[in-house]
Amino acid sequence: MSETPADPNNAAAPQGTDPNAAPSLVVLAQYLKDLSFENPRAPEVYQSNETPKIDVNVDVQGRQVGTNQFEIELSVAARANRNENDAMFVAEATYAGVFEIQNVPQQQMEMVMMVECPRLLFPFMRQILADATRNGNFPPLMLEPIDFMSIYVANAQRNAAAAPQAPEPAPAS
């Protein structure tokens, strides 16, 4: 996660923001950074009518690339297996966007980057993976909508629980 420098005049606002202005989130660019589709058992895999077990993992990363500009990467890895060691297909993609985020309080910046930005990128990622699996002669993989806010809250709670607790002061003697 990237850190945004604070404005010395207003510790709650990122650098270059007007505390009285409305928050804004602008998509400056969006693009496919990486795409991989593997079909390791072709053509034998097409002779089976078995329904695979599909595992999907999602990751979001963010970094500052300029003043009030952040690159957010949404990565998805999907693997369809007949059993643990028998992959029918493996699809991996990273879709990214550069966002200009202004007038957002510093304490809300991470939430905007990890929730709102990937929410805007998700429909494009979903289509890319659906097309890749369909082009691999499988039914299109239609990812269910992702509740990025619930994931963000769960991660924040997990991180808070894992953080070392400050020792209590020793009683005065």
Sum this structure up briefly.
The protein has helices at residues 106-135, 148-162, and strands spanning 6-7, 10-14, 24-38, 53-66, 69-81, 87-102.
Describe this structure in words.
With 173 residues, the chain is an alpha+beta fold. It has a single domain (25-153), classed as Bacterial Protein-export protein SecB (Roll), CATH 3.10.420.10. It has two helices and six strands, in the order E-E-E-E-E-E-H-H. Strands 3-6-5-4 form a four-stranded antiparallel β-sheet. It has a two-stranded antiparallel sheet with strand order 1-2. It is flat. Mean pLDDT is 86; it is low at 1-14.
Set out the fold topology.
Blueprint: E1 6-7, E2 10-14, E3 24-38, E4 53-66, E5 69-81, E6 87-102, H1 106-135, H2 148-162
Antiparallel strand pairs: 1-2, 3-6, 4-5, 5-6
Question: Mind telling me which CATH architecture this is?
Answer: Roll
What is the residue-averaged pLDDT?
A: 86
Q: Name the CATH superfamily assignment.
A: SecB-like
Radius of gyration: 21 Å
The run of helices and strands is EEEEEEHH
- What is the CATH class? Alpha Beta
Question: Keyphrases for this structure?
Answer:
Bacterial Protein-export protein SecB, 6 strands, 173 residues, alpha+beta
